[in-house]
Specification:
By secondary structure, the chain is an alpha+beta fold. It folds into 3 domains: 2-370, no CATH class; 380-488, 3-Layer(aba) Sandwich (D-Maltodextrin-Binding Protein, domain 2); 490-618, Immunoglobulin-like, CATH 2.60.40. Helix content is 54%, strand content 16%. It has helices spanning 2-27, 37-45, 52-62, 68-80, 84-109, 112-124, 126-132, 138-157, 161-177, 181-198, 204-222, 226-234, 247-255, 260-286, 292-318, 332-344, 349-370, 382-392, 408-413, 425-433, 456-465, 496-503, 561-566, and strands at 398-401, 420-422, 442-447, 466-474, 477-484, 491-493, 508-518, 521-530, 538-546, 549-552, 556-558, 577-583, 590-600, 605-617. The strands form 2 sheets. A 9-stranded mixed β-sheet has the order 2-1-3-5-4-11-12-8-7. A hairpin with a 2-residue loop joins strand 4 (466-474) and strand 5 (477-484). The longest helix is centred in the middle third of the chain and has 27 residues, at 260-286. The N and C termini lie far apart (87 Å).
Length: 618
């Protein structure tokens, strides 16, 4: 037994190393990004606290997708806990298996050498890594799509009842995973029809029998989700924007992270693929039909890409936009297999191996260094914004938002039962102005491309009645805490001893990059840290300081990963940014200095830095 395992490892060590690398690339820093809008949908629709009877209705209300992924995720949450890390871990695992599935399919289509290169390219592909770390159905769909093509190829090679049943099961799993699977199924259907008509020497009777068996199996297994097919045909409008003139080009480039050098490599590999086609065409003429199977490889791949695109394109330009990059992940494995065929069929083996190595190295460098994929924020920071609210909402003020469905997951995990009001800021303030709502303290949260841009009337009402006591702006998410002026506690008195201690804190390092004050309007931007202290737990508050009295002003926290990088720090200064841009008419007249007050309860340190520019409130 041990000998067999050792022999298996020696024979397959390249594939094993690729799968290990794929695992690292997909699981590393899996929980770094906040769950964003679509992922919160997955968390809501697969909530393990729902009954199994309520689950389908929740999915039907919240998604225009088949329910299989959400059912699986529901039971995974039951077993391993209800968190975004668990949901993304499921996708990452599927992503690794998808790399292996790509190897199996390419091996059946071409040979083991090309299959290893296809698996390597799939392992490194930017888009595949991205969606392997996304709590959405795309990796489940990609896996079952590859599985269905694998079983289809086996069925083409041998029209046995067993292969027919397996193909029917695999194709059904594909369309159970995503509605785009119907378009790919159409491509497979056309492929099988052409094979039935054009392939010489095929046992058409056996092929027809097997195809019928596969179709019956597919139809029977799809009955539980037949509503998804009806919903697809009933769609009259969709949230997807119309496809731009260069839309497909942009989507294709995004498959490879928009890296120009990778796209240039791709062009070289496409030339290799078409040269291979040309050579196979010549050998087919000279050697009768012996090489026809290799021609069917190109037919399968080209139909896979073209026909999967055809129906969405027709519907996009005639009725409802249906083209979206993540939906077209359906064609990416076919593109990767074409690239692998192109590079491995370069006749000079040294050149071929060199190109594969360079392609892999440049892809890794692009992902890890140029794109900063694992350490730069790329998803809307719902988690950080809601955490900010929970840390500072000791009085349980209500939360107003235009995105009410996306906050309970975060609040309920921390057992916070804040009142959440579904309203746009302008509408909410208009209701207060018309006395439909009382003037009380509240938080406002928004995000996902919804920027802070209230109407003039809203701004005037807020200035008249509220002070912004807390403010946070993250990536595609922001929140402000509005406190009624009469209830606000913006004045802070210090004793001489306290002030001396705060000002003597030599551990503070601060820099004001922008300072502008005119006509009682202050604009400030900068950063501040405690030296050798993780900035994540440091609270930064700006204040106007006069003698021993400070007046707190609106402070918006900003993520400043550039500070950590520029200063070459070995500790985290990413949370060091601050900003304010506001009128100070509510501050008593007098001469002030800008104070930057830092407080870290974890390290039990407190300090104050005074900026030299004088501020005169008139």
């Amino acid at each position: 037994m041990r000998y067999k395992l050792i022999k298996s490892f020696v024979v397959n060590y390249k594939l094993i190393l690729i799968l290990i690398l794929a695992t690292i690339l997909r699981f590393y820093n899996l929980d770094f990004q906040s769950p964003w809008l679509d992922e919160i949908h997955s968390l809501n629709e697969s909530n393990p606290n729902l009954s199994i009877f309520d689950l389908y209705e929740r999915i039907k209300m919240g998604e225009q997708l088949p329910p299989l992924y959400f059912y699986i995720l529901y039971f995974i949450f039951k077993l391993f806990g209800y968190s975004i890390a668990v949901a993304r871990g499921f996708s990452a695992l599927l992503g690794v298996i998808t790399v292996y599935s790509c190897f199996l399919l390419t091996k059946e289509l071409i040979n083991k050498r090309t299959a290893l290169v296809a698996a390597l390219f799939m392992c490194f592909n930017y888009y595949m890594i991205l969606y392997s770390q996304e709590a959405r159905p795309y990796m489940l769909f990609t896996l079952f799509m590859l599985f269905s093509y694998y079983r289809m190829v086996l069925f083409i090679k041998s029209h046995s009842t067993k292969n027919a049943v397996w193909y029917g099961v695999a194709a059904c799993l594909m369309i159970h995973s995503h509605l785009v699977g119907f378009f790919t199924l159409f491509a497979q259907f056309v492929t099988l029809i052409l094979y039935f008509i054009l392939k010489e020497g095929v046992n058409r009777k056996q092929l027809l029998k097997g195809g019928t068996i596969a179709a019956v199996v597919l139809l029977i297994l799809y009955i539980p989700a037949f509503d998804a097919l009806i919903s697809l045909s009933d769609i009259k409008s969709f949230w997807i924007r119309p496809l731009a003139a260069d839309g497909l080009t942009l989507i294709y480039n995004s498959f490879f992270g928009k890296s120009e050098i990778i796209i240039v490599f791709n062009l070289i590999f496409y030339f290799g693929f078409f040269y291979w086609l040309f050579e196979q065409g010549k050998s087919n003429i000279k050697k009768t039909g012996e090489k026809l199977a290799e021609h069917w490889v190109s037919i399968i791949l080209i139909l896979w890409i073209s026909l999967t695109l055809l129906i969405p394109l027709i519907r996009t330009y005639t009725s409802v936009p249906m083209i979206l990059g993540k939906y077209l992940i359906a064609i990416l494995p076919a593109i990767i297999i074409i690239l692998a065929i192109g590079v491995t069929h370069i006749k000079n083996n040294f050149l071929s191996a060199t190109l594969v190595a360079l392609y892999s190295i440049f892809t890794l460098v692009f992902i890890i260094i140029i794109e900063d994929y694992y350490v730069s924020v790329k998803k809307a920071q719902f988690r950080e914004s809601t955490s900010y609210i929970m840390e500072r909402n000791s009085k349980n003020h209500k939360v107003v938002t235009s995105l009410p469905l996306y906050l309970p997951y975060f609040f309920q995990k921390e057992n916070k039962n804040y009142e959440i009001i579904n309203s746009d800021l302008n509408v909410f303030i208009e209701d207060q102005a018309q006395k439909k709502r009382p003037i009380k303290a509240f938080w406002y949260f928004d995000g996902h491309n919804r920027k802070y841009n209230p109407k003039k009337e809203t701004i005037e009402f807020l200035k008249k009645n509220y002070i912004i006591q807390d403010s946070y702006t993250g990536f595609q998410a922001w929140t402000r805490h509005y406190v009624v002026k009469e209830e606000s506690n913006i004045k802070v008195e210090f004793t001489q001893a306290e002030l001396t201690q705060l000002l003597s804190m030599s551990q503070i390092k601060s820099y004001v990059e922008k300072f502008n004050f005119e006509q009682n309007h202050l604009s400030v931007k900068g950063w501040a840290i405690f030296k050798n202290v993780n900035s994540k737990n440091t609270e930064i508050r700006l204040m106007l300081f006069n003698n021993q009295t400070g007046y707190l002003i609106e402070t918006t926290d900003k993520i400043r990963s550039d500070v950590t990088a520029f200063l070459k720090l070995d500790y985290n200064a990413d949370y060091s940014g601050f900003e304010t841009n506001m009128d100070l008419d509510y501050i008593p007249k007098g001469n002030y200095l800008l104070g930057i007050w830092l407080k870290n309860d974890v390290e039990n340190i407190n300090g104050l830095f005074l900026h030299k520019e004088e501020i005169k409130i008139q």
